[in-house]
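User: Second chain of the day. Same drill as before.
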Amino acid sequence: MSMNNNYFFRFTILLGVLFMFLQNTSAQYAVGIKGGLNICNYWGTDLNSNYQTKFAPVFGLMARYQKNQTFSFLAELNYDMRGANYDEIIDDGIIYKVEYQDINKAVNYISLPLYAKWGFGQKKLFYGIAGLYGAVAVSANIEGIQVITNKYDPYDVTVIPVDADIKDNVKSFDMGALIGLGMDFKLGTAMDLMFDCRYNWGWLNTAGQGQGYVANTDWAFNLGLLFNLRKKNTE
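Assistant: Same format as last time:
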């Protein structure tokens, strides 16, 4: 069993334990929707490419279990678009140089962030969050151009469009930590409007064999709308 599969198994156990805990906890429930923007890139060692930041959307569903005015627990189910932009020299031969230019690497995940939320300040307007996320890659591709240049003839240049599926070169499971700050606006008693900025730090290598250690990292700006449900009856 690979390391990523081991972490997937542990993350599944954590979900089960958490679900049992919440079943026995008196809480105010809320569900809602969210959308946002990822400013994403990679971190790691021996990166094969010159990765640069890219912008990608994220959207999904939210659920909140609120113990009291200060503390609550949230879970999300997101379609999470990540990746990076890069240029890469593939072959720097004696006569010809072959390189990728303006490559957009897009890896799309179904992600499940789980995190605690602590309110602070007047009327608990501000909050901090910290938790974990698990994510399963559902698709991956690169788009851009391949340029073949004759080093001795500046007019001998061939440009080839690139559009390739790279799902087999991406690990299927990712896991990491998240931390952030936000604001919670009460829209009467029925709804909450939440805005947060969070940092997602991937722990696992997402690249295939021979591609270095490539882990996800991104700043995310999220806007969510929660609809409060009736309080659970514990009698």
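The chain has one helix and ten strands.

User: Great, on to the next one.
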